[in-house]
Amino acid sequence: MNLLWTLLAATITALVTTITVGLVATPRLDARKKRIGEAHAARDTFGTHLMTVLATCTLLEQTPVDDSDWSRSLRDRVKGERERWLQQLDDATRWMVDNAFTYAGSWPSQRLKDFAVAYAANARGVVLSERDEAVKRELLIALTTPTQRQFFALWWIRTRYYTADQRLFAETIARLAPEVPQS
Q1: First CA to last CA across the chain, in angstroms?
Q2: CB neighbour burial string for 75-112, b if at least 16 within 10 angstroms, e if fewer
Q3: Does residue 182 register a pLDDT over 60?
Q4: What sign results for the dihedral spanned by CA atoms 157, 160, 163, 164?
């Protein structure tokens, strides 16, 4: 009889524990898992957009605007491609600004959060600016290269280039500051 009571108490304890965990802890853990998954997916998308900016700037740099040997239809096709690439830059920087707090908030240090937000805002500003296309490309590459390296390179590469990346990023931001008009 004593064994029966022990088994019954153990069964009831296990049942109550299982139900309590299922009703209280599991939903909270599932919600947390979803938030963490979304943050990591946003980080991956941020990395993809950084690479899109770098690749698109390179494509624009390597593809001439016009060549006298080209036929009219080839000129039109190349012009269409360049416009599509410029649209990719616009789309990538727009996503980074619109989702900055999703991916930036997932990094542990405030320095990394601030760096990600500063990059997104400044890259978007460059794309929206009225600067010459070549200057925009130069500025975007100067902003994106250290950002991509500091967020997505292997840890020893990040460490090796940390000071240089911070300096390059700060210098590029300084170049973006509007000139003060002379009185």
Answers
A1: 100
A2: eeebeeebeebeebbeebbebbbeebebbbebbeeeee
A3: no
A4: negative
The DSSP string of 14-40 is HHHHHHHIIIIIHHHHHHHHHHHHHHH
Q: Any residues with CB less than 8 A from the CB of 105 and at least 6 apart, and which?
A: 39, 113
Q: Can you give the pTM of this predicted structure? A: 0.80
Q: Each residue of 122-132: pLDDT tens digit?
A: 999 999 999 99
DSSP string of the chain?
A: -HHHHHHHHHHHHHHHHHHHIIIIIHHHHHHHHHHHHHHHHHHHHHHHHHHHHHHHHHHHHHS-S--TTS-HHHHHHHHHHHHHHHHHHHHHHHHHHHTHHHHHTTSSSHHHHHHHHHHHHHHHHHHHS---HHHHHHHHHHHHHHHHHHHHS-HHHHHHHHHHHHHHHHHHHHHHSPPPPP-
Using alpha carbons, list the distances in angstroms from residue 21 to 10, 48, 58.
Answer: 16, 38, 54
Q: Under a CB-based contact definition with an 8 Å cutoff, are residues 136 and 171 in contact?
A: no
